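Researcher: Re-running this chain for the archive, since the previous output was lost when a drive failed. Same request as before.
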Amino acid sequence: MKALDIGGLILTLITVIFAVLWAFPIYWGVITSLKPESQVIAKTVEFLPRTWTIEAYWQVLVNTMIGRWYINSLITSLGVTAITLATSALTAYALSQLRFPGRLVLWYLILASFMVPLTALIVNHFILMAQLQLINNWMGVILPQLIHPVVIIVYKNFFDSVPKEYREAAKMDSASEWRIFSRIYLPMNWGVTTALAIVTFIGAWNNFLWPFLAVSKPEMMNVAVGITQVNDAFGVQYARELAAAILAALLVAVLYLIFQRRVTQAIMLSAGVKG
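Model: Regenerated structure tokens:
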């Protein structure tokens, strides 16, 4: 019994140590952003500011377009989330419940898409969006981010698990496929949909590479790309840089804290599919 207690104590201690190591960079970033620049560049290490100030945050809010970048990120992230969930749910329902020519080919193509990293498609995406004249356009940012085979597979696995008696009873009542999907199958998995929506939104919000390539106008940038434009003619101001980064991550952090269980559920579902 004592051996078990010692083992549990050691495990708890190791967990706490790793938690502190993980959280320390976040703590250091927040504390640094609340210091005057003169204290930030000082040679001494101070774990708490001698003078507390929100000047760095004020500079970011007043002297940058972070409000516009937030709006751009919200529009594109919500667009990616809504379209991804709608198309993925419909595709998964068709693959799960309908029988049509080419069904297995489509399913295998979706499974095979795991073998192609999205970064390998960047050049093709850019050429296509340029040909469609969607560079520096919200749709040009949204469309290439709609490739989420994991969402389709998670939905299909859920639809496969629904008892067939529900569908047969609805068909006996002359219900259309759309009615069966929207009134029976979709309401039964709101928990899965919510979890997938949160993870998809966070992924779109944090996406940097494609929005960086697809947008060159500052007023069209999302917040992840926009904060890289925060600079000063007199050199780098570390407090302001960190303040911009914290403001950019604030919404996602709040969402994660509120919907932590849903995020964990979605990650477990995705990990189960990939495994």
